[in-house]
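Figure 3 (text version): structure tokens given as input.
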């Protein structure tokens, strides 16, 4: 529909694209999710799926069981802020893996080179991933060595959105 002040595109009587009088474009059905990430006592020497819960929003309901499933083929932007707490300085590696059906993205550091006592660390990253319809994306943590005491604090967040 068209008015003097805005332009809208509807399909099946549902608003899909809106351009308002200032030129701002919104797409209320665009897949987008934001959720809390957490995990208690990451197992040692084991790649572990980070729990995604407490969704702030999930447009399209594409996040289930800590796995995002792409509803359509496209380019997806994902970001995360993973706040590790109680990091054991005896650990030789700690990292976040973002694993899609097509590729794996990694962010690593060596706790035994950073501090002399247990500490906190925040890992952040963003990436644009090429995903086909029904491809999946998971965020995973790995802790090599030390004690199984490192947590993904519940203040951690992930976001995923279709951008093209």
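Below: residues designed for each position.
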């Amino acid at each position: 529909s068209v008015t003097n002040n805005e332009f809208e595109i509807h399909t099946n009587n549902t608003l899909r694209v809106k351009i308002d009088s200032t030129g701002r474009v919104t797409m209320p059905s665009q897949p987008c999710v934001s959720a809390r990430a957490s995990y208690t006592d990451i197992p040692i020497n084991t790649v572990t799926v980070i729990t995604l819960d407490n969704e702030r929003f999930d447009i399209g309901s594409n996040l289930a069981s800590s796995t995002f499933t792409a509803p359509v083929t496209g380019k997806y932007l994902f970001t995360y802020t993973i706040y590790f707490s109680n990091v054991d300085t005896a650990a030789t590696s700690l990292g976040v893996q973002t694993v899609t059906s097509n590729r794996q993205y990694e962010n690593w550091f060596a706790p035994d080179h950073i501090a002399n006592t247990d500490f906190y660390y925040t890992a952040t990253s963003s990436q644009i991933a090429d995903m086909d319809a029904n491809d999946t994306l998971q965020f995973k943590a790995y802790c090599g060595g030390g004690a199984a005491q490192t947590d993904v604090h519940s203040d951690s967040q992930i976001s995923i959105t279709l951008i093209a």
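DSSP finds no helices and 14 strands in the chain.
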